[in-house]
Design a protein that fits this description.
AAA family ATPase; about 15% strand; 9-stranded mixed sheet; disordered N terminus; alpha+beta; 5-stranded antiparallel sheet; about 775 residues; hydrolase activity, acting on acid anhydrides; Rossmann fold; 4 domains
């Protein structure tokens, strides 16, 4: 009975069948009730993969494009396998956004439709392979004979005659084989399947068996039988330890390694990324560097020099082997046997293959050794983390020059880190952040543009701001005030995204406490993250304000603050973008006079600030200072018109100067630090102005020296007015004090041994990359 029911689900003759042939085959091979079911308007539109993708996203199921066949990149020589993702971050870029999906298929009209499995879609797939040389149907028959038939559920027939049995997602279940026999595995958390309805170039296609539809199939996905979950969770016996052929004299070649890498997203976790580099190094030696670097360059997190920096620390014959790459490729959909056959002329896999006649004995033997099930069968079994070896991290691996810090705001806000902009009420932080987003998306305006948040914007690309305080009308008014040249109507306008939640469905919680699960990231946040990961040139994301997104006791509970910080840090790592939150400062009885005072005034537990890489604070100047500054600037004094700001916490180098802002008629805070002049400005203000002037001169390719032909006093016409007026001795004293404080440094130019040119720490001359403009005295 079981053999007959299983056999009906498979047919070798179904392989590579055309569209008409497959319809005839299905009608002949399925039970009468199934064969009689006629496709309706909701059945995936076979032959039109874009239409199929749109039907899935209309049902709320995220999709992403996959290659319809293998292809060779003519520029890099890299080989991509069929069914491999076309998105830079693989399955993690899956989207339900129609605009994004249409853009994908406009670029790749024949792309197959990929669907991630696991928590994101609510199902996993039991993948039974029956293409030439595979016997998954026999293995499944043996399993059902040993246990029980699979329950009725949604079944998809693949283009080669195999099947995907869909079952409801099980927490802790990841894409793997567990103790499943040969030619059967699962696609769960971290995996994906090609969607029913997808059509290949030769006319073969994937199709629901039994008349299921894209809009209704999820309701008919069954719970997985316990015996199947137990087998998948039962660890496989360690059969092989490396991905090598039987003949050890025939190691994997470069072409094979490249094809395996085509199934692995370069934006995987950091440790997995390092393991892949180590494995390629171990397999190919020095010849593997170009392959590893080209693979990494496909990712959104790629930074030139990162691969080289890690590569220098690897030792031949030690560390991770190619089996790690093979397993990650398999998880990404690679057919290891087919790849090995293609490159070596024989079938090969990292898992043991069994003769069909021995399947039943194999299953019984493996099940006898399976891990005992806990008394509470409902508790999820977490996936085992990759083993950490402390011996891989001896300091001799860090060779050569360390990679330079990449900045969003030069010398102040790095790229790829989580941070915070905190300010007192009515300060204008949201407007200032919007201007930062505008400069990132539209361009900063050159080295002499007014600084923002203490420096010049150097990281340009797409920026995304999500605000829960301002509606669309207010955002429109602010954009209109900032974008006076109409840049938003140029292609650059597509790079600036501002989401006013009050006009987009209302405020959303991104972090909250669940009674059963504790602190969690909400589905809304996960969906936002998925969309952000799909933006290749993403540079800046801001959530404004933090309190509206974090429905947690941030002020009282350090663990809540740390949870949010960890979440933001992970998003920054996965996207390579700077992730900022806008936050409030508490009212202070005493005036804030120093950056340390400002840090203490930030609301929330210390874990909230300590858990982020950077915090920038802004607060109104006290009345006396504000009036003095307004008089110097020649503007009328108004409360809150003068604002001070600076970095109050940074993990790493950051310019910690106190900037002075004046509110413009539009309400925007404009940095007046460099040009501020008074009859008797404070020493700190003069030194700050000097630092800013030194930085601007270096960025422009005309750096100052302390004395001499390019000296500060000799070139004082290039200094702001308040510095031009002071005596030579006092100017020299200011420079000396700034040098002693580390606010400016002496640097040697290219080809010179003497460090005499002034710059700020981390500046273009300070790191040895400065170029002089024509006519600069040297």
């Amino acid at each position: 009975m079981w053999a007959d029911s299983t056999a009906r689900r498979f047919s070798r003759q179904s392989q590579k069948r055309s569209l008409p042939q497959q319809h005839q085959h299905l009608e002949a091979s399925l039970p009468t009730s199934t064969a009689a079911a006629q496709p309706n308007s909701e059945t995936p539109s076979i032959g039109d993969n874009l239409a199929v993708a749109l039907e899935y996203i209309a049902a709320g199921i995220p999709v992403f494009p996959c290659r319809v066949s293998g292809e060779l990149d003519p520029h890099t020589g890299r080989v991509y396998g069929p069914k491999s993702p076309l998105t830079s971050n693989g399955l993690y870029g899956a989207s339900t956004n129609e605009k994004i999906v249409r853009q994908w298929w406009r670029r790749n009209p024949d792309a197959l439709v990929g669907i991630p499995t696991g928590e994101k879609t609510g199902f996993f797939a039991l993948d039974v392979d029956v293409k030439e040389g595979k016997h998954g149907d026999v293995s499944l028959a043996a399993l059902e004979a040993e246990h029980a038939p699979l329950p009725p559920t949604v079944v998809v027939q693949t283009a080669t005659g195999g099947t995907h049995f869909l079952f409801k997602h099980v927490d802790g279940l990841t894409t793997s084989t567990g103790s499943l026999p040969a030619d059967i595995d699962i696609r769960a958390q971290g995996g994906y399947v090609i969607a029913a309805g997808s059509t290949l170039a030769d006319g073969t296609f994937y199709e629901f068996l039994g008349g299921h539809t894209t809009s209704g199939f999820m309701a008919e996905v069954a719970e997985a039988p316990k015996w199947l979950v137990d087998i998948v969770r039962s660890p496989r016996r360690p059969l092989r330890h490396d991905y090598t052929p039987a003949n050890d004299n025939a190691p994997a070649g470069a072409a094979e390694v490249e094809e395996l890498l085509s199934f692995i997203s370069p934006d995987i976790g950091y440790q997995d990324w390092v393991n892949v580099l180590m494995a390629v190094h171990g397999a190919l030696g020095g010849d593997g560097f170009a392959i590893a670097d080209a693979w990494s360059a496909r990712g959104a997190k790629y930074r030139k020099g990162d691969v080289a920096a890690r590569w220098k620390g690897f030792t031949a014959g030690k560390g991770v082997t190619l089996s790690t790459v093979a397993q990650l490729a398999r998880d990404g959909g690679a057919d290891l046997s087919a790849i090995a056959t293609k490159h070596r002329g024989r079938q090969h896999d990292v898992t043991q293959k069994m003769d069909p006649e021995k399947v039943e004995a194999f299953v019984a033997k493996e099940l006898a050794k399976k891990t005992p099930v806990a008394a509470n069968d409902n508790d999820p079994v977490p996936a085992e983390p990759r083993a950490l070896s402390i011996f891989e991290w001896t300091v001799d691996r860090f060779k050569g020059e360390a990679p330079a810090v990449q900045y969003l705001v030069d010398g102040v806000i790095p790229l790829g880190v989580p941070g915070m902009v905190s300010a007192a009420g009515d300060t204008g932080k949201s407007f200032a952040l919007l201007e930062l987003h505008r400069r990132v998306a539209f361009g900063s305006g050159g080295p002499f543009a007014t600084p923002i948040f203490g420096g010049q914007v150097v990281g340009e690309g797409t920026s995304v701001m999500i605000t829960s305080e301002d509606d669309a009308n207010e955002v429109h008014r602010r954009i209109d005030a900032l974008d006076t040249k109409g840049n938003r109507y140029t292609p650059a306008g597509k790079r600036m995204i501002v989401v006013p939640l009050p006009s987009a469905g209302g405020a959303r919680a991104f972090w909250k406490e669940d009674k059963k699960q504790g602190l969690i990231e909400t589905d809304d946040f996960k969906r936002i993250c998925d969309q952000l990961k799909d933006i290749g040139d993403l540079r800046l994301v801001t959530f404004d304000p933090l309190a509206s997104f974090a429905h947690l006791p941030l002020n009282e509970d350090p663990s809540a603050g740390q949870f949010v910080c960890t979440s933001l840090s992970r998003l920054a790592t996965e996207t390579g973008a700077t992730i900022l939150t806008a936050h409030h400062m508490r009212k202070s009885k005493a005036p804030i006079e120093t950056l340390a005072d400002a840090r203490e005034a930030i609301r929330g537990s210390t874990a909230l600030v300590d858990g982020l890489r950077l915090a920038y604070a802004m607060w109104p100047a006290d009345e006396a200072r504000a009036k003095r500054t307004c008089k110097s600037l020649g503007i009328q004094y108004q409360p809150n018109r003068i604002v001070l700001g600076g970095v109050v916490k940074a993990n790493g180098a950051a310019r910690r100067i106190m900037s002075t802002y004046a509110r413009s008629d539009s309400g925007l805070l404009v940095d007046k630090t460099a040009g501020l002049g008074t009859s008797a400005p404070a020493q700190d203000d003069l030194r700050t102005a000097l630092v800013v002037a030194v930085e601007a001169a270096a960025n422009a390719g005309s750096p100052f020296t302390k004395t001499g032909a390019s000296g500060l006093f000799e070139m004082r016409e290039r200094l702001p007015e308040e510095l031009r007026r002071i005596a030579k001795g006092r100017l020299d004293a200011l420079a000396t004090e700034a040098l002693e404080r580390g606010e400016i440094v002496r640097a040697a130019a290219r080809g010179e041994k003497t460090a005499k040119w002034l710059d700020v720490p981390g500046g273009i001359f300070a790191i040895g990359l400065g170029n002089f403009t024509t006519g600069t005295p040297r």
